[in-house]
Amino acid sequence: MRDKFLILLNSLSEKLEIDLQLDKNGACSILYEDSLQVQLELDSTLENLIVFSSLFTLAPGKFREAVLLNALKANDTFPYVATFSYFEPDSSLAFHNFLKFETLNVDILVSYLSTFVELASRYKKAIEQGNSSFF
Asked: Residue 64 is inside which H or E element, if any?
């Protein structure tokens, strides 16, 4: 599966016209719009591709509570794109999903990443402007 992951990354690199490399942990990071970093990596079972982005560091307090509450509400909206969650290692709002790797190809991934990045960027910008949600 790791070979298929490398092939997928090479194809993605060509489609996005950027150089993509695996880091020492077997993950690949893509920087969008100079501010949104999206990480791709296989899960431990090698069956799912994890798409992950840490959106905004949240200091303790009322604003963090409001952001996380609204993120939980956003998780229950249609259509489902990914899940908002609290990422404890850097105290941030995160956005992630698990894509079934066996059925994934570069066209599906490019399309998915476009939607993922659009929604993540909207939410990130809203929080940066002091809003607890963009809904």
From this structure: helix 62-74
Number of domains present in the structure of the chain:
1
**Would you say residue 134 lies in a domain?**
no
Q: Under a CB-based contact definition with an 8 Å cutoff, are residues 44 and 37 in contact?
A: no
Which residues, given as ranges, of the chain have pLDDT below 70? Answer: 1, 135
Q: What pairing do the DSSP bridges indicate for beta strands 36-42 and 83-87? A: unpaired
* 3-state class (DSSP) for residue 118: helix
d(CA 42, CA 34): 24
Phi first, then psi: give them for residue 55, nearest 5 degrees.
Answer: -85, -45
Assess if residue 53 is contained within a domain: yes
CATH number where 8 lies: 3.30.1460.10
* Selection from 35, 53, 43 nearest residue 116 by Cα: 53
For residue 96, what are the domain limits? 2-128
- For residue range 94-119, what is the model confidence (pLDDT) as tens digits? 999 999 999 999 999 999 999 999 99
User: What pLDDT does 33 receive?
Assistant: 85
Q: Is residue 135 part of a domain?
A: no
Secondary structure class of 30 (helix, strand, coil):
strand
